[in-house]
Write a structure and sequence with these properties.
Radius of gyration: 19 Å
Oligomer: single chain
Number of helices: 9
Structural class: mainly alpha
Number of strands: 0
Strand content: under 5%
């Protein structure tokens, strides 16, 4: 009943904030791709493909938009709830591509010395732990999402580190233009 009467609960249930997170990750890594492309174009293209695949799969699997469009239609909301388990597989595939992207971009940026060694280590740790959900999910282990939960703090630190390096680079470029 809460799902029908409090929209925020519905948005949380249908993972609206997860899709916002995926889009923010894409925005976060756009400057990284631009810098990577100028140094090694062959490496940037597969990274962009992995990220866009993840964003598209996650968008297609997410039901938050359908929830928002049918917030007053109880029959449609019941159908969405029943359908949510079939969309979970597509969502898990999207998360797999997102962690694969994370490992790929971490290694690619380290090869061209784009970020610090600590950013590299955090990226390998966060994405390495997170991608462990795949063999657990395939094996049918009930707690297959545990690696994603354990990877979350490292993922936040890694993404924060990437953002700080990106902002630092932008600030250094701006200061050079002024002098």
């Amino acid at each position: 009943q809460t799902l029908y009467s409090i929209p925020l609960v519905g948005f949380i249930y249908f993972k609206f904030f997860d899709i916002v997170n995926v889009f923010l990750i894409a925005v976060l890594f756009l400057p990284t791709f631009m810098r990577l492309q100028s140094r090694n174009r062959k490496t940037a293209v597969p990274g962009i493909v992995l990220l866009l695949t993840s964003v598209i799969l996650y968008t297609v699997s997410n039901q938050a938009v359908a929830y928002w469009m049918n917030i007053d239609n109880v029959v449609e909301l019941n159908r969405l709830i029943q359908q949510s388990s079939s969309n979970a597989r597509l969502g898990h595939l999207a998360v797999f591509f997102l962690y694969t992207f994370g490992i790929f971009i971490t290694v690619a940026t380290q090869r061209v010395a784009l970020f610090s060694i600590w950013t590299f280590r955090l990226g390998v740790l966060a994405n390495g732990i997170g991608i462990l959900f795949v063999p657990l999910w395939v094996a049918g282990i009930p707690y297959y999402l545990a690696p994603i939960i354990f990877a979350a703090p490292f993922t936040v630190m890694w993404q924060f580190n990437v953002a700080m390096h990106t902002m630092k680079r932008k600030t250094n470029l701006t200061n050079k233009d002024k002098s």
